[in-house]
Design brief:
The chain has eight helices and ten strands. With 287 residues, it is of the alpha+beta class. It folds into two domains: 125 residues, N-terminal domain of MutM-like DNA repair proteins; 144 residues, Helicase, Ruva Protein, domain 3. The strands form three sheets. A four-stranded antiparallel β-sheet has the order 1-6-7-5, with helices on one face. The chain has a four-stranded antiparallel β-sheet with strand order 2-3-4-8. Strand 6 and strand 7 form a beta hairpin. Helix 4 packs across helix 7. The C terminus is likely disordered. The protein binds a DNA duplex (16 and 16 nucleotides) through helix 6.
DNA sequence: CCCGGAACCTGAAGGC
DNA sequence: TGCCTTCAGGTTCCGG
């Protein structure tokens, strides 16, 4: 699915079009998409609500409603949102829900695999309780990151995917960040040297920043609300197995499974043990 | 608490 | 062409 850069892009495109609009109705073509309460109640709670503000938290899209509640949208693996006009836009293939707005606009929620989620919550707590810090917020400091890694024995790749540890990173950008910092994905988090952890911290932010700048990646089913596609995947070094040979050293990119997730990496640039220059990092003068 | 595995679903792609 | 297997960007629940 869409990861942080993709959801951020969707949010940015929706803001100018739907802020201040009122939800006339929601048409469900697949009722299983609604979670947390009976469908009838969901429809009742959202009908007639004005959309005050649109924001993103992790991979969640949050629409603040005039009732004080929030419409939460999660695209999961294959979901996408498209904007159209009542009467003259054909809903995209695999449309599972249509949100009708008061000005004739329609938001199509397409999702081939039906994993996507729509729900109404009365407090952001329901989302916040599942998430760690945002990669770009002040609380997520280099020190916090480095110190946290030391306490965890889980594979570093798995930790990056843990939304409670850090919100927004998914499979593609985890692979890209590990490649950029030359770290073997299955290494335990606490085995990273201080210098590796520092490089990874900055790689995560750099990779996400670059992807947002490219409007996200459009690898399989992802589109922008206006129907265009992101181009971040053209910059991928390993993610999604699109690249055959490493751009840096020419070694064939390999695939392995880390905690159940397909993981692409360069066996030469990301060796199982840190290189000699990493093994004995410069000791900080203080402490 | 940690971890692996399965479940939720369906389509696309590759092998034969 | 058709059948079968594998894979897919996420999250959550269950059992050991």
């Amino acid at each position: 699915m869409p990861e942080l850069p993709e959801v951020e892009t969707v949010k940015n495109q929706l803001v100018p079009h739907i802020t201040g609009r009122t939800v006339r109705s929601v048409e469900l073509l697949w009722e299983g998409m609604v979670k947390g309460m009976p469908v009838e109640e969901f429809l009742k709670r959202i009908r007639g609500q004005k959309i005050l503000k649109i924001s993103r938290r992790g991979k969640y899209l949050l629409l603040a409603l005039s009732s004080g509640e929030y419409l939460v949208i999660h695209l999961k693996m294959t979901g996408s949102l498209r904007l159209g006009k009542d009467g003259d836009t054909e809903p995209p293939r695999f449309t599972r829900a249509i949100i009708h707005l008061d000005d004739g606009q329609e938001i199509y929620f397409a999702d081939p695999r039906k994993f996507g989620v729509l729900k109404v919550i009365d407090s952001l707590h329901h989302v916040e309780s599942k998430l760690g810090p945002e990669p770009f917020e002040a609380e997520f400091t280099e020190k916090y990151f480095i110190d946290s890694l030391k306490k965890r024995k889980t594979p570093i790749k798995a930790l990056l995917l843990d939304q409670k540890f850090l919100a927004g990173v998914g499979n593609m950008y985890a692979d890209e960040a590990l490649f950029a910092s030359k770290i073997y994905p299955a290494r335990s988090a606490d085995s990273l040297t201080r210098n590796e952890a520092r490089k990874l911290y900055h790689a995560i932010r750099d990779v996400l920043t670059a992807a947002i700048g490219s409007g996200g990646a459009s690898v399989v089913t992802y589109f922008h609300p206006d129907g265009s596609k992101g181009t971040a995947h053209f910059q991928f070094n390993v993610a999604h197995g699109q690249v055959k040979n490493c751009h840096v050293c020419g070694t064939p990119i390999e695939r392995m499974v880390v905690r159940g997730r397909g993981t692409y990496y360069c066996p030469h640039c990301q060796p199982k043990k840190p290189g000699n220059h990493e093994k004995y990092p410069k000791v900080s003068s203080k402490k």
